[in-house]
Hints:
By secondary structure, the protein is of the alpha/beta class. It has 2 domains: 5-262, Aconitase, domain 3; 268-412, Aconitase, domain 3 (2-Layer Sandwich), CATH 3.30.499. Helix content is 33%, strand content 19%. It has a 7-stranded mixed sheet, with helices on both faces. 3-isopropylmalic acid binds next to helix 2. Iron/sulfur cluster binds next to helix 10. Residues 20-282 form the Aconitase/3-isopropylmalate dehydratase large subunit alpha/beta/alpha domain.
Amino acid sequence: MGLTLTEKILSRASGRKVSPGDVIEANVDLVAFHDLTGYHVIEVIEKVGMKIHRVDNLVIAFDHLVPPPDVRSAEIQKSIREFVKLHKISNFHDGGYGILHQVLIEKYVLPGQFVIAADSHTTTSGALGAFAQGMGASDIAAAVLTGKTWLVVPQPFKIVLDGRLREWVTGKDVALEILRVFKADYFNGMSIEVFVKNGTDFPMDYRATVANMGIEMNADTLMFVPDEETKRFIESERGYTPNIIQPDNDAEYVDEYTVELDKVELLVAAPHSVDNVKSVSEVEGIDVDYVFIGSCTNGRLSDLEIAAKIMKGKKVKTRCIVIPASWKIFVKAMELGYIQTLVEAGCIVTYGTCGPCIGGHFGVTAPGETVVATINRNFIGRMGSPQAKIYLSGPSVAAATAVLGKIAEPGDVI
Ligand SMILES: CC(C)[C@H](C(=O)O)[C@@H](O)C(=O)O
Ligand code: SF4
């Protein structure tokens, strides 16, 4: 019997052949944290007092508290900077460089790696075919000190993406479609391996969105089987061609499901849960106060391109904040004129912060407000007030909504 991608990666990382259900100890290829959880990671490291196992596979990026909204946040960042200096950590990205998950896929992660980070959306790196799992701060501290962690090998589930998406429908709609069908807790204890039938029909930006939302499906990880698109992305971002690893043809999965891409509609997750999925036509016309386009879910170049296409020559009727997920994306979007279009349409544009996604700062919601956001979570209080209502959508619905002031489809605007 052949091996799944999950089994291949975890067998290599643990140095023995593993099977689903095994409790294993494995060597991590990359370990990462950000400012908010980093504070706790460092606290544990300092308490234990051991030396860092390897600085070259440790990545730190500031994103949650960027720019620091209060003295406590500034202090947290200051203490992490001192830690970085003390341990001579070179893979450190201070505020403004990008959201950790975006930085990881732009610069560090490779297909087949075992990656852990102190943030639940670490699954984003599964876009490149890495087994990437979020863990708590103490587990991450232990991995920083020993180079190892432990985990239960998840049950592998196969999802096939077949066909081609309709106009304006993107990776976010595919993630929501999977949540519509399976609901938010189905994949508990599983790893999802996604096979794209025709790789070019499902580009890396879309893969990153779906992998990002793997944790919202409650999967341990969600990986796209590496293919030509994976190679293309790494070549264009980093200038070299990676080796890719794929599951065997006769690998066994607990189950399998095919998403017919041409049947996927424009979807939203209505308040207050990610699996309360509705087609946009069911909620069209609801008045909206505020639109947020950004985050590690949908702050990529293709998201900004779609928003700019829809907003070109128009003015937004809602408040609208746009946050590209990294400096690199911001610069590309500037060169391509997207930032100018969005600013002229009346959006506030900044970069490199989680900001409103977690209701921390930079655009929190007031009681009674209705929000459309391209983020991954809409539970009560996520973006500020517990009395706000959050609809999750892809970039085209968010942009059309900002222009019309009510939930809309791109076709209503263009
Ligand atoms: C703050 C952090 C622990 C959290 C996570 O792990 O996901 C955050 O990034 C989020 O999106 O809710
Ligand atoms: S952008 Fe949002 S989902 Fe992503 S890491 Fe930041 S807070 Fe979490």
